Amino acid sequence: MSVSVALIPVFGLIVLGYVLRRVDFPGDSFWPQAEKFTYFLLFPAMLIYKLTTAERGGVELGSIVVTVILFLLVVSGILLALQIIFKWRGAVFTSIYQGGLRFNSYVGLAAVSELFGDAYLPSAAVAMAIMIPLINVLCIVAFAIWGDKQIKGLFGVLKAIVTNPLIVGCAVGIAFNMMGVEFNPVVEGMINPLSQLALPMGLMAVGAGLNLKALRGASTSFLISSIVKLLVFPLVSLVILTILEIDPVTSTVVILLSCLPTASSSYILARQLGGDADLMATIVSGQTLLAIVTIPLMVTWLI
Predict the structure, then answer these.
(1) CATH assignment, 3-298
(2) Whose CB has fewer CB within 10 Å in the chain, the N or C terminal residue?
(3) What does the DSSP assignment read for 143-208?
(4) Which pLDDT score, from 0 to 100, does residue 111 have?
């Protein structure tokens, strides 16, 4: 099965979410609540279940940590170099920076599952658990330097990073796995169906959140941010993985994660911390649509 065909269910669910939201089914108030339900319950349930029941020793933690830190620093350096060249207004650069660095975890885990099966999910989940706090810290630093607002309540922002449901779910799942925890049949009978709901609901919520009107008059800033995120980021990852001679499973997961479009939560952060929220909305929706083409191309070429 080709990569493009394997990813049809992933992008099909995103399109379905978009269509359902536009026809107002099952109601305008449903989708924000569905996203919250997925983020705080279904997603952590899936991570806890998959990581607890995963084969022990299957995750190369050291390789993932080193690779993630290196490619985040290199891509950050590329974005800073572009800022020196183009001299964007501060708020504009924060949105370009987020668009070039952040990733959509729902699309990532769904793509890993469809392309490579559950055996690769633990490595993907651990990589995400490392990437999310590091990316958030880097983005907060960018807002502190270039954002239009003075960051207040920094402790609250950092607390939100540490208590991110994905990070908590990974931590619990890894701990249970290391302790050899086995789910009681009753508990497994509850958590397994919840975990199976996570990715379909998450992908439809991504689609429901798309704003195609934001793409009107898309700027050079959007184009540059998208090129860095969808094309340059995967190439940087491949170079680092090749130099470090990282194992095949970790390499596959890292390259796929580096191909992902930026996260929809970027818009909220841009609005709260003084970024260019309109540009961020364009980047989020535009990259998600572009990823339908770029993910199959980059995965086929690089993996």
Answers:
(1) 1.20.1530
(2) N
(3) HHHH-SS----HHHHHHHHHT-HHHHHHHHHHHHHHTT----HHHHHHHHHHHHHHHHHHHHHHHH
(4) 93
